Amino acid sequence: MPVPARRVSSSHGRRRRSHDALKMTQVSTCPKCKEPALPHRACTNCGTYRGRQVLSVAQATETLIEKSKVKAEPKAKKTTKKKASAEETPKN
Question: Is residue 51 within 8 Å of residue 31, measured between CB atoms?
């Protein structure tokens, strides 16, 4: 198995990791309803994209509700059944 010839210096490692920082999501405003909206996506409030109606408002709210339900559902824990030993079983 190959071994590195020499250790990577701390400054080199930091320079490599300089692009790993998280960036804030850019939020623009919808030109029709002036609500915050993600760029290059249909507005979830009015359903328009680039001046055209592409989603019905009811459909947009339904998809948001479905996504929030999926995130809010707790994950089911797996239960394991223990086998009853001879000492725990009642004797007749």
Answer: yes
